[in-house]
Write a structure and sequence with these properties.
Elements lengths: L6 H18 L4 E4 L7 E5 L16 E4 L10 H8 L2 E3 L4 E3 L4 E4 L7 H4 L15 H11 L7 E3 L8 H6 L2 H15 L5 E6 L2 H11 L3 H7 E7 L7 H9 L14 H4 L3 H5 L15 E2 L4 E2 L4 H7 L3 H10 L13 E7 L3 E6 L11 E5 L7 H4 L13 E7 L10 H11 L1
Parallel strand pairs: 1-7, 1-8, 8-9, 9-12, 10-13, 12-15
Antiparallel strand pairs: 2-3, 2-6, 4-5, 10-11, 13-14
Helix pairs in contact: 12-13
C-alpha cells in the first residue's frame, strides 16, 4: 500500500502550484517610448557654434535631455546640435557636421525612466520610472531582462529607423525577452509616437506566425495614429513641447528638419476632413488637405517635400492582427486650431482654439485605431482615461493598473 500524503502537505503543494501558475501569467514587457521619450547622446567636434558659450568640442554627453541646455542662452546650443541636415545628393538625413549622436540604453530601461540622468529628483525629467518601478517592485520583473525598452532616435521616421537597423534590433530584443521569460509571449507597450512606430514593424516587417509566437498583447497609450494639429503648427512657429521655455518660436529651426515631424502631420482622410481647419491666417485657412500652399505660404517648401516622402508609411493604418488595447487620455483641452493675426504668420506664436484630446493628440487621431475592430479577428479594446494628459499616460496609476491587468 502506497504512502498517503498528509492534508497539510497537499495544501502546501496546491498553494505552490497556484503561485507558480500565477507567476507564469506574467508576460515580459517591451516598451517603445514616444517622441522625446528617451535620451539622445552627442559628441562634438565643430568648427563653429552659434554663440561663444556653446561648446565646439566634447566627449559623449546627454544632448536630450540636458536640463542646463533648457536655460537661456544655452537653448540655442541645444537647437543647433539637435537639428538634422538633409543631403539632396544622397537623400540622406544626418546630424550637422561635427555632431555625432547615438541612442543609449537599448534593451535597458534607465534611459526612458529619466530623461536627464543627472537630475532624477526632478519630476520634469521623469518619464517611465513609475511604470517600470511598479512592475519591478510589485511583480518581480527584472530591468533589462523581463522589462526592457527599445528607445530610438525620434527625430526620424520608420523608413529611416529601418535603414538604421532599429527594427532588426527590436525583433531580436523581443525574441531575447521572450526567452528570458521562459519562452513566454511578451506584452508590447507603446506610447505616443511609439504606437505608429511599432505599428510599422508589426504590419510591414514581421509575419503573422512570428507575431503569434512572440507577442501576447499589444498595448498602445495615446497613439498618434493619424498625426496631430501641433505638428502642423511646429513647421510654422515651432513648439516648446511643454517645456518651460518662454521664447517665441523656440524649436522651429530644429523641428522643421525632422522627418518625424512631417510623418506626424495630420493625415488627410476621414480622420482629418477638408473642412477641419487647423491654421487660420488673414489670407486663407489651411486644413490637412492644403499642405502644398501651406508650405509655400511660409516659404518652406522643403517641408512639403518631407511630407510627400513620409506621409504613407503608416497612414493606411493596417490592423496589427494581434490582441490590441488602445488606451488614451480624454477630456483634456487640446490644441486644434491656430489663429494668426495680420502679419503674424508664420513667425509669431498664434492664438490657440482647443478641442478634445489628451492635451497633445487630438481625439480623432487617438480613436483612429477603432477601425481595427472590423478589420482583424483579434480583439481590439478601446478605453479612455478622463483628464489624463498625454505624457501622464505612462505615469497615471489607473493606466498602470490597466496595463498590469493585461500583463500580469
Amino acid at each position: 500500500m502506497g504512502a498517503q500524503a498528509s492534508p497539510l502537505l497537499l495544501t502546501a503543494l496546491i498553494g505552490l502550484c497556484l503561485v507558480v501558475a500565477s507567476r507564469a501569467k506574467n508576460t515580459p514587457i517591451v516598451i517603445i517610448p514616444g517622441v522625446l521619450g528617451n535620451q539622445i547622446e552627442a559628441k562634438l567636434d565643430k568648427d563653429s557654434v552659434p554663440h561663444i558659450w556653446c561648446e565646439k568640442k566634447s566627449g559623449w554627453f546627454t544632448l536630450w535631455l540636458g536640463i542646463l541646455e533648457l536655460v537661456y542662452p544655452f537653448t540655442d546650443c541645444l537647437e543647433d546640435n539637435i537639428k538634422l541636415e538633409y543631403h539632396p545628393d544622397t537623400g540622406k538625413y544626418t546630424s550637422p557636421e561635427g555632431v555625432q549622436t547615438r541612442v543609449p540604453g537599448f534593451g535597458e530601461t534607465s534611459t526612458i525612466e529619466y530623461l536627464d540622468p543627472s537630475t532624477p529628483w526632478l519630476s520634469f525629467t521623469q518619464y517611465c520610472h513609475d511604470l517600470v518601478e511598479h512592475f519591478v517592485s510589485k511583480h518581480g520583473y527584472i530591468r533589462g531582462k523581463t522589462i526592457v525598452a527599445a528607445p530610438y532616435d525620434w527625430r526620424y521616421a520608420p523608413s529611416l529607423f529601418q535603414e538604421q537597423g532599429y527594427y532588426n534590433n527590436l525583433k531580436q530584443l523581443i525574441e531575447d525577452v521572450y526567452a528570458n521569460g521562459g519562452n513566454t509571449p511578451i506584452t508590447l507597450l507603446a506610447h505616443s509616437m511609439g504606437a505608429p512606430t511599432s505599428l510599422y514593424f508589426l504590419t510591414k516587417l514581421v509575419n503573422q506566425a512570428w507575431k503569434e509566437k512572440y507577442i501576447k498583447s499589444y498595448i498602445t497609450l495615446s497613439g498618434v495614429w493619424h498625426g496631430c494639429s501641433k505638428s502642423m503648427k511646429m513647421f510654422a512657429s515651432g513648439d516648446n513641447e511643454g517645456i518651460f521655455i518662454d521664447m517665441n518660436i523656440w524649436g522651429r529651426e530644429a523641428q522643421r528638419t525632422y522627418p518625424g515631424t512631417a510623418w506626424l502631420l495630420p493625415y488627410p482622410s476621414d480622420t482629418w476632413t477638408r473642412d477641419e481647419v487647423i491654421i487660420v491666417t488673414p489670407e486663407r485657412n489651411y486644413s490637412a488637405w492644403d499642405y502644398k500652399p501651406y508650405f509655400q505660404a511660409m516659404n518652406y517648401t522643403r517641408g512639403y517635400e518631407m511630407y510627400e516622402e513620409f506621409k504613407n508609411l503608416t497612414n493606411d493604418l493596417l490592423p496589427p492582427n494581434i490582441t490590441t488595447y488602445c488606451y488614451y487620455g480624454n477630456k483634456v483641452a487640446t490644441p486644434l486650431t491656430y489663429v494668426y493675426g495680420p502679419g503674424d504668420f508664420p513667425d509669431t506664436e498664434p492664438k490657440t482654439i482647443n478641442g478634445n484630446g489628451d492635451g497633445t493628440v487630438n481625439n480623432n487621431s487617438l480613436l483612429a485605431c477603432k477601425r481595427w475592430k472590423k478589420q482583424q479577428p483579434y480583439s481590439v479594446t478601446l478605453e479612455s482615461f478622463d483628464n489624463v494628459e498625454h505624457v501622464d499616460m505612462v505615469k497615471n496609476k489607473d493606466v498602470i493598473n490597466a496595463v498590469e491587468a493585461i500583463a500580469v
